[in-house]
Amino acid sequence: MTAGAPDAHAKTLKPRETRIFYVDPLKERSMPFANFKFPEGLVDAACKEEIIHRTTAMFVEYFGERVRPYTMVLVEEVADGGWGRADETLTLAKMGRAPNPK
Questions:
Q1: Does the pLDDT at position 9 exceed 60?
Q2: What total of structural domains would you count in the chain?
Q3: What 3-state class would DSSP assign to 47?
Q4: SS3 label, residue 83
Q5: Which pLDDT score is estimated for 22?
Q6: Which residues contact 34 (CB under 8 A, 6 or more apart)?
Q7: How many CA atoms lie within 13 A of 96 on its CB side?
Q8: What is the CATH number of the domain that holds 50?
Q9: Which residue ranges run through the membrane (predicted)?
């Protein structure tokens, strides 16, 4: 493929085929799921609770009230230095951040 040329596969896709990764929880009986990962010590319990409530509300707004009992929100803390971006290990110190007191 040459630079600027369209991808040959993209030409063959029909509009309906672009939605193959969409799962409607009302039809498939699957549960909406969100997974948030934060550096350890950056978010406190109140912040985690707010993330859970707001994410659940977003799913309910999008899919309807019927998904509330099936919505799963996981807020995880990753050990400092246990994550990275662009081939660089990140720490709170490198980001100029101090962990929140527990």
A1: no
A2: 1
A3: helix
A4: strand
A5: 52
A6: 55, 59, 72, 73, 74
A7: 0
A8: 3.30.429.10
A9: none
Answer yes or no: are the C-beta atoms of 77 and 43 closer than 8 Å: yes
C-alpha angle 31-35-39 in degrees, rounded to nearest 5 = 165
Cα gap 56→54, rounded to integer Å: 5
| Beta-sheet strands, E only, within 1-92 | 33-39, 72-78, 83-85, 88-90
- Residue 80 belongs to what domain range? 30-102
Q: Does residue 39 belong to any structural domain of this protein?
A: yes
49-83 pLDDT, tens digit per residue, is: 999 999 999 999 999 999 999 999 999 999 988 88
- Take residue 29 and report the two structure tokens written for it: 């009986």
Looking at per-residue pLDDT, the higher value among 11 and 85 belongs to 85
pTM of the model: 0.63
